[in-house]
Design a protein that fits this description.
Elements: H1 5-25, H2 31-51, H3 63-81, H4 88-107, E1 116-117, E2 121-122, H5 123-143, H6 162-181
Antiparallel strand pairs: 1-2
């Protein structure tokens, strides 16, 4: 991705930490947590790899189409999973956004898509920015506690804490917004 080096390293750290926690969630005793955690770990680590500043490491040109294939496969998996649970529609949009960003980067590190809205923002980028900004704001608002803390929450394992899973999803949404802004 293109952009300032310091924020890029912060994005790498955020996404790698999120991916690491998602790997921990894959050991959860709750099947729902395990099912979603693998795809979210892939997203976290993929975003971390894509966010490494180009001034530090410029990946070979074949890397971007490879990312598109990997995230395309993840998008197909999310589409298949969405048949039984609409929560996976968000995963489908997220993986599709990663495919889009990979294809834009594969076209040319400085290329811009020609379908523009307003002042030069590509149409797809604009739609994805609107979606992920709304997702971050709504999901972030849901993280704010509205009542007394539930008793016994400290006895749960780290991989079984739904509030941490939601926080990871919000942080990946923030990461996606940051990556889309650099496109």
């Amino acid at each position: 991705m293109h952009g300032p080096v310091s924020p890029a390293w912060l994005l790498v750290a955020l996404c790698a930490a999120t991916g690491s926690y998602c790997l921990l969630r894959m050991r959860s005793g709750v099947e729902e947590q395990r099912r979603a955690a693998g795809g979210e770990a892939l997203m976290g680590f993929g975003m971390a790899a894509m966010a490494v500043p180009a001034s530090v490491f410029a990946p070979p040109h074949w890397t971007w189409p490879l990312y598109a294939v990997v995230f395309g496969a993840a998008a197909l998996r999310a589409l298949w999973a969405a048949r039984r649970d609409t929560h996976h529609l968000h995963h489908l949009i997220g993986t599709s956004a990663m495919v889009y960003m990979s294809l834009v980067m594969a076209a040319s590190p400085t290329a811009h898509v020609h379908t523009h809205v307003g002042a030069g923002v590509p149409l797809v980028t604009g739609v994805l920015l609107l979606y992920f900004t709304g997702y971050v704001l709504l999901s972030g608002a849901r993280l704010v506690p509205t009542g007394p803390a539930a008793g016994g929450a400290g006895s749960r394992r780290w991989g079984d804490r739904p509030e941490l899973a939601r926080a990871c999803r919000v942080s990946m949404g923030i990461g996606t917004v940051a990556m889309l802004l650099t496109m």
